[in-house]
Automatic annotation (TrEMBL):
SUPFAM superfamilies: Alkaline phosphatase-like (SSF53649). This is Phosphoglycerol transferase MdoB. It comes from Lentzea albidocapillata. The chain crosses the membrane at residues 34-53, 60-81, 112-137, 149-172. The lineage of its organism: Bacteria, Bacillati, Actinomycetota, Actinomycetes, Pseudonocardiales. Keywords: Membrane, Transmembrane, Transmembrane helix.
C-alpha cells in the first residue's frame, strides 16, 4: 500500500510538472494534441538533478521547483490577460492593474469580499509554488535513485524527438523556454519604457499655441466613447442594420457624417488608457504611462477647448469614487455617477444607462443658456457582461430614471461572461452595442442643431469570446455635423461617408487623432 501511494505521488508530480511546462499560454490553444509533446526543459532538468552531487541536489530541486511554481503563476496570468486584453502579462508594467481590479471588487461587493479575494489569491500562489517545489524534489529523488535508467530514458527521449521531427508536426516542446525569453524581452522593454515615454511626451507642437480650434467657434463639440465598440461589431447583422438605419435617419434630419478606424492601445478592457490616448495624443498602453501622463502638463483636447473659451465638461458615469486624475484633463466640471441624478437600478457594470447619461448632460449643460461647450462622455451600457441591457425609453419620460425599475436588472461582474454560452454572450454584446448606438443617434435627432458636432468612437475591441482569435485592435470613429463648413474641414481626412466605415477606410493610431483634430480646426499658423 505504501509503495502504491509513493508511486501515485510520483506520477502526480510528473503530470503536474509536465502540465506546467507544455500547457499553452492561450486558452484557445488548449487541446489534447497540445499535450502530446516532450518538454525539452523537463529533460534538461532531469539530467541536471541526476548528475548533481547529493548535497546539492535537494537545494537545486527546491530552487527549481519554486521557479517552476512562479512560472506556473505567470502562465496563469498570461492566460487571463490573453482572454481579456489579447496579450500576455507584463512582469514590469502590469502590476498596477491589479489595484483597479481590487477596487472594483471593493466597490461592487464590499470590503470583506475584496480582502477575501486577495487572501485567496495569495493562498493560491503559495499553494502552486509549494506543490511545484515538492513535485520537482520528488522527481529529482526518484531519478537520482535510478540514475542509469534516468539517463538512458533522457537519451532515448532525445533520439525519439530528433527521429520523429517532421515540419508542421510538433513532437517536442520548448514552450517554457520560449515563454521565458519572451518575458525577458518584455521586461527589458518595460524597464526602458519610462524614458521612452518621457521622450515622446516632450514633443508637443501645440503646447503654448494660441488660436486653437477657431474654426469651431460657437459649436458644441461632444466626444462620446462607446464602450467595447470595436471593428468586429460591424460584421454583426444587428449592428450593421442599426448603422444603415442610422445613416438614413441622420441624412433625413439634415446631418452629414464621415467614418474611419483608429487603432486602440488596448483590447478587451483598459478603457481609461484608450480614452487618455485619444484625448492626449500620446500612446498609453500601460498603467505606468497613464500615471506619468496624468502627472504631466500635457495639452489634452479638453484643456485645448477650455483654453479657447469653451466650457469643458467630463460626463463619466463609470466613476463611482474619488478621481484625482480628473484634474489632469482640465475640465470645468466633472459629472461622476452620483452627479447625474439617476434613481434607477444598475444594469450589469453600468451605473447609468447610456440614454440617461446623455439626457443628464443635455439637462445640465446644453438645455441651459450657455456658451460653446465641449464634453467627453464615456458611456458604459455596452461594458461587459452585456446583460441585461435596458430598453430604449421616450426621452420625455426618462425623469430621474425610476422608469428603469420595471426592467430586468443585475449587478453581475464583467468576468461573468466566461461562465456563459459564447453564442449568448455575442448576442447580448450585439444588443448592448445597438442600444448604445441608438442612444447616440437618437440624441442627435432629438437635441442636435446647427451648432452640434458629435464625434463617437469605440474605446477598444470586446473580449476574444466575442471577436474570436486574431482580431485587430481597430475601432470605428465617426464625426457627425449639420453645418457643411465643419464637414468641409474634414474632407482632407479622406474618411468614408456615413457612420459605418468600409473595409478599406483609413486606419490611424488613436494617439494621432488629437493632432489631426487640432490641425484641422485651427489656423494654419498655429
Amino acid at each position: 500500500m505504501r509503495m502504491l501511494l509513493r508511486r501515485t505521488v510520483t506520477v502526480l508530480a510528473g503530470l503536474f510538472v509536465l502540465f506546467v511546462l507544455i500547457a499553452p499560454s492561450d486558452l484557445e490553444k488548449f487541446s489534447f494534441e497540445a499535450f502530446l509533446r516532450v518538454p525539452l526543459e523537463g529533460l534538461a532538468g532531469v539530467l541536471v538533478l541526476v548528475l548533481l552531487p547529493d548535497r546539492f541536489r535537494k537545494p537545486a530541486a527546491v530552487a527549481g521547483g519554486v521557479a517552476l511554481g512562479l512560472f506556473a503563476v505567470v502562465k496563469i496570468m498570461d492566460i487571463g490577460f490573453d482572454m481579456v486584453l489579447y496579450r500576455p502579462f507584463d512582469l514590469v508594467l502590469d502590476w498596477p492593474l491589479l489595484v483597479p481590479a481590487i477596487d472594483f471588487v471593493d466597490v461592487t461587493f464590499g470590503r470583506f469580499a475584496s480582502v477575501l479575494a486577495v487572501g485567496l489569491v495569495v493562498a493560491l500562489v503559495a499553494g502552486i509554488v509549494f506543490v511545484a517545489a515538492v513535485s520537482v524534489q520528488r522527481l529529482g529523488s526518484v531519478a537520482a535513485g535510478r540514475r542509469p535508467v534516468a539517463i538512458r530514458a533522457v537519451a532515448a527521449a532525445v533520439v525519439v524527438c530528433l527521429s520523429l521531427a517532421v515540419p508542421g508536426v510538433p513532437v517536442y516542446s520548448d514552450a517554457a523556454a520560449t515563454s521565458l525569453v519572451d518575458h525577458a524581452r518584455r521586461v527589458q522593454v518595460g524597464l526602458n519604457d519610462r524614458e521612452v515615454f518621457a521622450a515622446e511626451a516632450s514633443a508637443d507642437a501645440f503646447r503654448g499655441q494660441s488660436g486653437l480650434l477657431s474654426s469651431l467657434q460657437g459649436k458644441d463639440v461632444v466626444f462620446t466613447f462607446v464602450e467595447s465598440y470595436g471593428k468586429s461589431a460591424l460584421d454583426m447583422p444587428d449592428i450593421a442594420a442599426k448603422l444603415a438605419q442610422g445613416d438614413d435617419r441622420l441624412k433625413a434630419a439634415g446631418y452629414s457624417s464621415k467614418s474611419a478606424y483608429l487603432t486602440s492601445p488596448t483590447a478587451g478592457g483598459g478603457s481609461w488608457m484608450a480614452q487618455a490616448t485619444f484625448l492626449s495624443g500620446l500612446w498609453i498602453d500601460n498603467q505606468q504611462r497613464y500615471r506619468n501622463l496624468v502627472a504631466s502638463d500635457r495639452l489634452t483636447l479638453p484643456r485645448a477647448f477650455r483654453e479657447s473659451s469653451w466650457r469643458s465638461v467630463g460626463v463619466v458615469p463609470g466613476i463611482t469614487q474619488a478621481w484625482p486624475e480628473g484634474d489632469f484633463f482640465h475640465y470645468d466640471k466633472i459629472y461622476a455617477a452620483q452627479d447625474l441624478g439617476y434613481a434607477g437600478p444598475r444594469f450589469g457594470y453600468a451605473t447609468t444607462p447610456d440614454q440617461f447619461t446623455l439626457e443628464s448632460f443635455q439637462r445640465n449643460e446644453r438645455a441651459k443658456a450657455h456658451g460653446p461647450v465641449m464634453a467627453a462622455i464615456p458611456m458604459v451600457s455596452s461594458h461587459a457582461p452585456w446583460s441585461p441591457t435596458p430598453d430604449f425609453v421616450d426621452w420625455d419620460k426618462l425623469g430621474d430614471g425610476s422608469i428603469y425599475s420595471t426592467m430586468p436588472a443585475s449587478n453581475d461582474p464583467p468576468e461573468s461572461i466566461f461562465g456563459r454560452d459564447p453564442a449568448a454572450v455575442r448576442a447580448d454584446y450585439a444588443h448592448s452595442i445597438s442600444y448604445s448606438l441608438e442612444s447616440v443617434l437618437s440624441y442627435i435627432e432629438k437635441y442636435g442643431d446647427e451648432n452640434l458636432v458629435m464625434v463617437f468612437l469605440g474605446d477598444h475591441q470586446p473580449a476574444q469570446m466575442v471577436t474570436g482569435e486574431g482580431a485587430s485592435r481597430d475601432v470605428p470613429i465617426t464625426i457627425v455635423a449639420k453645418d457643411p463648413a465643419v464637414m468641409a474641414e474634414v474632407e482632407a481626412w479622406k474618411w468614408d461617408d456615413g457612420i459605418k466605415p468600409g473595409g478599406s477606410a483609413p486606419v490611424s493610431r488613436m494617439s494621432d487623432f488629437r493632432d489631426q483634430f487640432l490641425s484641422t480646426f485651427s489656423p494654419p499658423n498655429t
